[in-house]
Specification:
Blueprint (H helix, E strand, L loop, with lengths): L18 E2 L19 H12 L8 E2 L9 H13 L4 E4 L9 H13 L3 E5 L1 E2 L2 E2 L11 E6 L9 E5 L2 E6 L18 H17 L4 H6 L1
Parallel strand pairs: 1-2, 3-4, 4-7, 7-9
Antiparallel strand pairs: 5-6, 8-9
Length: 213
Amino acid sequence: MDSGIAFPHPHISAVGVGTALVGERAGTAGAADTMDRIGHGTAVAAAVSEKAPQAELIPVRVFERTLQTNADVLAAAIRWAADHDCALINLSLGTQNAERDALLRDAVAYASKKGSHVIAAYESEGARWLPGALADCDGILRVVGDATIERDALRSEVRDGLACVAASVYARPIPGVPPERNLHGVSFAVANVTGLLARGLSDGRTVTEILGA
């Protein structure tokens, strides 16, 4: 769930049919509707694909020309992904609007009942993001970023009494570009978690087994 994916792309192995929930043709399926126009979704997808090149990525475009959307679109996107059998729902985004708590909680609960796991940012720079910051919510994997963690590693920790997964904040490396000058932030911590989970699932492990390793 992001700004779409620019595909074909050398860093992305497989993209399935997704949907766009914003724009003139919102709600229709097809590659043209999920084309990334701002680059963020492609960079997130590349981080996932690096870890799990065998995974099929299903783009759900919730951004149009800027990295802005609304909670109704986020909730609809979570439900769409769950209805289309997405095992992992990558949410490298969120809202700070507490009034949307119930809406997003219901969407995550719906996805969990469908067997999907929502991987979402918990907090960044002191700001907490929904749905990642939801408490007592089955099906949510809360992610925090840590620049000291290797990009192929995860660490379980507790923040504010809630179980979280810490991961590297760095995007897929670009030769000749120092990591701190490349794209980085909690968005890519979420993508790194999603990629490592996808790799583990392809090896026949469960999410619980992967996080407990």
